[in-house]
Amino acid sequence: IPGRVIFSGIQPTGILHLGNYLGAISNWVKLQNEALPNDDVIFTIVGWHALTLPQNPKELSASRRDMLATLLAFGIDPSKSVVFYQEDNQCHVELSWILSCLTPIGKLNRMTTWKSRLAAKRNANDESEVDESMLNAGLFTYPILQAADILAYRATHVPVGEDQTQHLELSRDLADTFNRTFDPRKRFFPLPSQLITPTKRVLSLKDPSSKMSKSSPDVSSRIMLTDTASQIDRKIRGAVTDSIQGVTYDPENRPGTSNLLSILAACEGVEPQVAAQRYEGKGHGDLKKDVSAALEEMLKGPRGEFERLRNDQEYLARVAREGAEKAKERSQRTMSAVRKMIGL
Ligand code: ADP
Ligand code: NA
């Protein structure tokens, strides 16, 4: 039986926060560890996507290495998964071009991430014109590059958040268009399906009406995966809860308290409702102490491993090189078939 091809990517943003870990990376690790022998599990750090926004080359170069070290430290295992830098495999851009020529511009115009960028620009410049120099063509076409990332491996399953649903639909559309245009058997590209992550949305510690994010200027609103025990402790003690007595799980009315319970539950691998049970007759102080301790317990091993890997750039470079070889081996098979089908 042919296995699944599981594929996902992450931007080279360097050090991640707890939301990234619980919402994305921990799910990747689970998929990797639960994969069947016939499955192929592929993760990439997408440097080409990063270029859609202005980048400082020195920082970008450090961030992509930190991202690789993070993935490895938190459990991505190069002997089980193909892990590589997107920009080490030229197939992505080649396929992206071919798919570009199959994409109606109207479809890209309707992409909500593009529309929200456009709207954000319009608001920023109020009545004046949109500063189109900030809206580069890469930002407009990056859903096509994303489709190419996926289709280059003829991926069948893509674990990404719900914000990516529309982009994944484009990938399916393009797979289907390609099949119907060029493949006599009309099934060369499988239509990739979205593996929706069981929602583990981590909220900001300072404003539990929004998610924990790297874009918040308040660094105490997020736990970084490299935070020390005392940094974790300080941030959790400062987390916004509410003035209701006791600890109950009620995300609607008690988002701050419930967020801490969710974090605790995620660290322990239980449901938040279950974690809540032990706080009968206890208060926020008890909960916070336990959250800090659970986070430290979960993060201390990977944090040490991250530091170790960061100091072994040679090893990281070797993992990246070997990952790229495996990735290329797979995508070159796709590309020779594609080239033949399109007549080039
Ligand atoms: P940020 O919001 O910090 O900029 P990204 O947009 O770079 O994070 O997201 C990288 C990955 O982490 C995505 O898969 C996203 O769904 C996940 N993610 C980001 N923030 C959270 C969060 N607060 N809770 C759960 N998952 C998150
Ligand atoms: Na973001």
From TrEMBL:
GO terms for molecular function: ATP binding; tryptophan-tRNA ligase activity. The keyword Magnesium does not apply. Keywords: Aminoacyl-tRNA synthetase, ATP-binding, Ligase, Nucleotide-binding, Protein biosynthesis. It catalyses: tRNA(Trp) + L-tryptophan + ATP = L-tryptophyl-tRNA(Trp) + AMP + diphosphate + H(+). Its EC number is 6.1.1.2. One of its GO terms (biological process) is mitochondrial tryptophanyl-tRNA aminoacylation. One of its GO terms (cellular component) is mitochondrial matrix. It is found in: Mitochondrion matrix. Belongs to the class-I aminoacyl-tRNA synthetase family. HAMAP family: Trp_tRNA_synth_B. This is Tryptophan--tRNA ligase, mitochondrial. The lineage of its organism: Eukaryota, Fungi, Dikarya, Basidiomycota, Agaricomycotina.
